[in-house]
Amino acid sequence: MKLELIGITKRFGSLVANDHIDLVVEPGQVHSLLGENGAGKSTLMNVLYGLYDPSEGEIRVDDEPVVFKGPADAMAAGIGMVHQHFMLVPVFTVAENVALGNETTKAGGLLNLARTRERIREISDQYGFAVDPDAVVEDLPVGVQQRVEIIKALVRDAEVLILDEPTAVLTPRETDELLGIMGQLTADGKSIVFISHKLREVKAVSDVITVIRRGKVVGTAEPSASTTELASLMVGRSVSLTLDKAPATPGEASFRVRDLVVQAANGQRVVDGLSFDVSQGEILAVAGVQGNGQTELTEAILGLQDHVSGSITLDGVELVGRSVKDIIRAGVGFVPEDRSVEGLVGSFTVAENLVLNRYDDAAFARGLSMSPAAIRKNAEEKIEEFDIRTQSASSAAGTLSGGNQQKVVMARELSRPLKLFIASQPTRGVDVGSIEFLHRRIVAERDGGTPVIIVSTELDEVLELADRIAVLYRGRFMGIVPGTVSRDVLGLMMAGMPADEALAQAHDVQGGDL
């Protein structure tokens, strides 16, 4: 099936999310849509899938104009979509999820799941999915849940599959398996629109690459294009994708965690007996698929979790049981994973956000009154130092781009002497150019002698920054390995294999040093 978008434009008030986009997806082709977060990729696919009406433009299927009033119309035309956040009912079986919205009945009006199970087995066997129709979805690994979403589309006879950031929640091995599945689907004549910002994966799987920047198509590329060329197209200027980082020279292990346990409200141990040290002048990266206890770990260090036991010490001082303000005053800098909710007050000015955790310091306050002149002077210095793109220090922080909002948070946290710096998902939703800058600042903090903890689900980022890597799986460390370890070893650990076994298995497979 040939799919064509002609002059697609989507406006939200005065905001133009898609600006006269042309795109052709040929049968049996992987057509990658590459762009930074906020470039308009997902909006375009939501138009294609009938979730949004286009403001202008036309969609054609096999050269015939079509109008989709909703996802049902798109599915009827042979278009399926696998969303970044799965649309599955956790307590239903695979068969029940696949049948949902596409129910068939037998005599007496009862649901006919037998035919659905049969179709699941047929598709699973055809593409090597290994999915049990009677398995309960919440018991399945994330990678298998994604296959269920693909099966849902194929059961409805989809000829074009839209995969929206499909590897965001997968381990490296699951990612490789998905890319293999994509190859099987295209060999069978299916077409795939692959939406991603990950250059490595786009290059590995694409037949053609379309790059979108600020809602417009800015170019197309062959998969043979270098990552530097693709990154430059995405950002609009030359960028460096390699970090010039000298080897660490660790000092004293001034930050120590012993037998740390964090319990959720239901009593489950989301952090389960962690013990580790971080030395002055080193970066410890915590890797793992999102949802394995990373958030609870960082929040426990900062005093944001209620049910915590064990010990957390900084320079010999116990932090467990102290207030968040006391911990910040003890010299802990913290960049949260969700800057818009936990890192910034969007309605406050850039200047105000830059002193959120220091507003009552003598440098910015006199008695009960704040000093606007000092706050503004601080903001002007940090705006220049961190290259924050804003109309002025008085602009609301919520009006800035994601990358510039992250720079505001980073500038605030790195603007005082620190004894520990923690950054959770430090470049999530940030453009390639800003990633380059933020990585340099993190390394500079390490080189100044601060212990640094980075939490990231981006394996490339972990390997770029880490001196040592701790892999978290279901609240426990699978081990702590050198930053030079291979992606294969990390992938096995992220899937729940202890470090010694992962190292041995990867060594046996590769027959070389890791």
From TrEMBL:
Keywords from the UniProt entry: ATP-binding, Cell membrane, Membrane, Nucleotide-binding, Repeat, Translocase, Transport
Residue ranges of every copy of the ABC transporter domain listed in the record: 3-239, 255-499
A Pfam family reported for this protein in Swiss-Prot or TrEMBL: ABC_tran
InterPro entries named among the record's database cross-references: AAA+_ATPase (IPR003593), ABC_carbohydrate_import_ATPase (IPR050107), ABC_transporter-like_ATP-bd (IPR003439), ABC_transporter-like_CS (IPR017871), P-loop_NTPase (IPR027417)
Principal subcellular localization: membrane
PROSITE patterns found in the cross-reference section: ABC_TRANSPORTER_1, ABC_TRANSPORTER_2
PANTHER family: CARBOHYDRATE TRANSPORT ATP-BINDING PROTEIN MG119-RELATED (PTHR43790), GUANOSINE IMPORT ATP-BINDING PROTEIN NUPO (PTHR43790:SF4)
Name of this chain's protein: ABC transporter ATP-binding protein
